[in-house]
Every structure is written in structure tokens, then in C-alpha cells.
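[Q] Does anyone have a clean C-alpha cell version of this?
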Amino acid sequence: MIVVGGGAAGLSLAHRLVLTGSHPVTLIEPPDGPPRPPERTWCFWDRDTGDLREAIGASWSRLRVRGPDGGEVTVDPAPLRYHMLRSARFERLVHARLAGSRTARVVRATAHTVRDVAGGAEVRCAAPDGRELTLCARLVFDSRPLPALPPARTLLLQHFRGWFVRTAGDRFDPRVADLMDFRVPQPRHGLAFGYVLPLAPDRALVEYTEFSRTPLTTAGYEAALGHYGRDVLRLGPFTVEAAEQGVIPMTDARFPRRSGPAVFRIGTAGGATRPATGYTFAAVQRQSRAIAAALRDGRATVPAPHRRRALAMDAVLLRALDTGRIDGPAFFTGLFRHTPAERLLRFLDGATTPWEEWGIGARTPVVPMLRTALELPFLPRRARPAAGTAPRHRERPS
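[A] Here you go.
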């Protein structure tokens, strides 16, 4: 088996294939330099960290959402916890496990072409010294970003910039993660919020995020973050130790999971990003475990990362946000205020029953959501350019 790409999806699948031990695996990663993406932050919630425990950098048992008026909703989603890991630490963990396997290897090269050939598939790539390499396998799992997004009825972008800050005094509560803080100026179209993951009383990841049609310039994010840190959080003197920035599609496009008889798409390219939230990492873990189990049992398949019912609900929400029929800050604040936290997180993971989903839906703006649901089947799907996307830590994250 060949896995193309060293992001969350590629690393996760290679890791699972090694754990099952049923097939040799080659992981093709970009070499150091410009082709290699910068370090990223990934988050997810679960009952336990399982075999990823060594990669977890921080976790929280309490989550908070703040409305535009400053009203707080703080919840405890027990038995779930919210976990954060950094891509470099996750990569070291996976590479160590690959190095300990006799059936795994890592090839540092830039993949150019993945295509079906007689008896399987081949990957043509360039080594760091310029040599052209051709690698063949019975199956290839490709996690590289798509050159263009599939046709969609709705496309919003979740775009963000975050600072890892250190303050002069204690300004954060390490027990509580702020998922959405709407005490920031709202754009004319879409919504904006702050996001704070405390790492210590004087350290945190502080982020500004928008759901809208167009990303900001770096200067625009910097201005928004400066306002949020100084005027909203009132951090006082602080230093920025690192920064990260990204864009993810929030779309009802249909992502094909197979591009040929022996070539499969995984990760964001295969539809693992949850359209209404941008979270990816947990879906990638589920998908990787399912692929590894199927291959162990002699089946070559990539299961859908999200249920059709969840994707249908996401399509309605995206359209309602895009048309301005619902107030985004009020909608998300209301979800956390009126829904048991553990149930809401399972809902966002697509793990709730139809009865639970009906109860959650009854607490949303019913008329605009119903109007949106009725019009969706009649809207055309249009091709749109790719957003230069990379899965984000909200899994938001891949």
C-alpha cells in the first residue's frame, strides 16, 4: 500500500495500517522546505485519547461559548474531553512507530502524479536531489489537496489566524477552553468569533476566525487579533511566540472517495471535513481505522467519513448562514445553551440518533431552516475554485 501525504490523514492511515500489520505500507511525504506545510494545531473530542496519548499537548473538561453581549455558557461534556495536539508531535509519534515496523517505510519526495496502471497504481514523484521516482502498489491512498473543489450549492470559507501568546501576568484559566467568543465585530456577511485554548495561566493559543466568502489579508487578521487580545480579552502586555493561519472549505460539495480502481481519496480531499464546523481530525481517525480493518479483512474500500443525514443537515445550515436567514452568533450560542453538552458534541460528530437530532433541531430557528431545506433541492451545484485549503485544527478540525 502507498499513502501519499504527511498531513493528519496520511499519517493517521499509515499509523493504522502499521498497527493492524496486515499489509506493507509506504508513506510518501514532502521533503523539508517550501513543499512541506508549516506546523499546525489539531483538536478533537473523545472519551479517551487511546494510542494517541503521547501526542496530546493539552486537554480540557470544560468548554465555554460567549455571546455578543458577553453572556457566558460554560459546559462540561463528560465523559468527553476536548484535546489538542500539534502536528510536529503527532508526526514524531507516527514516524517512531513506522520506524519500529519491518513492513513500513517513509519516502521523502514530492508526489506529482497518481494514476491507475495494470495491476494497481503508480505514484510519480521527485526526490529532494531532483531524481524522478516511480513507486507502484496494489492500492494508493491520496490525501493531497484537490486542485479544484467539486460543484456545490453553498461554499463558505472558515479562515483564521492564531497567535501563541505569553502574557506578563496570569490571564487564562487552563481548565476552560473558549470555543466561540462572539464579542468581536461581526462582518457584513457571515460571522466571526474568538477562540482561546489556554495552555497555562500565562500562555494560550488565541485565534480570530471568520465563516465568510473571502479570506482576509494577513494585516487584516493581525488587526482583528490585536483588537481581540487588547480590547476584548484585556491581556495586558504579551508577546507572540508563534502564529498559524489557514483556510478550510465549508461546503455541501460531494467529494468522491475514489478517483480510479486502485486510487482512493482520504482526508479533506475525500470529504472528511465536517461541512458545518470545519472539524476533521476525529473523522480522519474513524476513517483510518475503518480502512485498516477493511484491508485486514480483504476488502479495498474507503467508507464515508460522515453520514448522509449529517451532511444533509449541514447543507441546510450552510445555506441558512450564507443567505443571512439566521443569526450565526445567536444560533451557535443557543445550541450550547439549550442542548446537553455531551449530546451536542456527539451531534457535531454525527453520532446522534434521529430522535436526538429532532430535539436539537426543534431548538433552532425552525421557519428559516425549513424554508432553506425546501429550496435546496432546486438549487444548482456550481464549480468553484479551490480555496488553497488545509485542514484546520478544529479538526478544525485535519
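[Q] Thanks! Anything notable?
[A] The longest strand covers residues 238-251.
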